[in-house]
Amino acid sequence: MRTPPSLQGTVRRFVGDDLVVPHVGWNTLGLARHTGLLADVPPGDRLYFVHSYRAVPEPANEDWVLATCDYGGEFIAAVQKGDVMACQFHPEKSGENGIGIFKNFLEVWSGGTVARCATPNAGAALLPDGVRRAHMLTDRFTRLV
Question: N- or C-end of the chain: fewer Cβ atoms within 10 A?
Fold first, then answer.
């Protein structure tokens, strides 16, 4: 079994006289590089954050950083290295943009093959080929993940 890559850097609590902590609400991303994970998030669209700590962009983690955000200073909002991906915001609370991020994650995870699959008495779900979790509906994704 191979050891996954480890993310290096510093995590700090948000501080500042004008900052409300935790940072709760909608904010935009500054895209640092393209890997496909955030391809469905148009520039200027907002994603939902709830957090009190931030990872700081620095040379030790620059090869991981996909996107940053600003809340009293720049912080890392999404990372990816190989098949390891993570985000500081909540895709499951970020509406259509979040569903797009989950779809892109599943495409990376499944090798690029995501199928639309009809489920009885429900809407369509985005599932990798061969995965039989038909109850993962996009309209109920938050409760089922």
Answer: N
Between CA 23 and CA 14 the distance in angstroms is: 8
CATH number for the domain harbouring residue 50: 3.40.50.880
Asked if 63 and 92 touch (Cβ cutoff 8 Å), the reply is no
Angle at 5 between CA 4 and CA 6, to 5 degrees: 115
Q: Mapping DSSP to helix (H, G, I), strand (E, B) and coil, where does residue 14 land? A: coil
Handedness of CA 20, 23, 29, 30 (dihedral sign): positive
Domain count, the chain: 2
How do residues 102-143 score in pLDDT, each as one tens digit?
A: 998 888 777 654 444 333 333 334 444 444 333 333 434 443
Task: Return the DSSP state at 5.
Answer: P
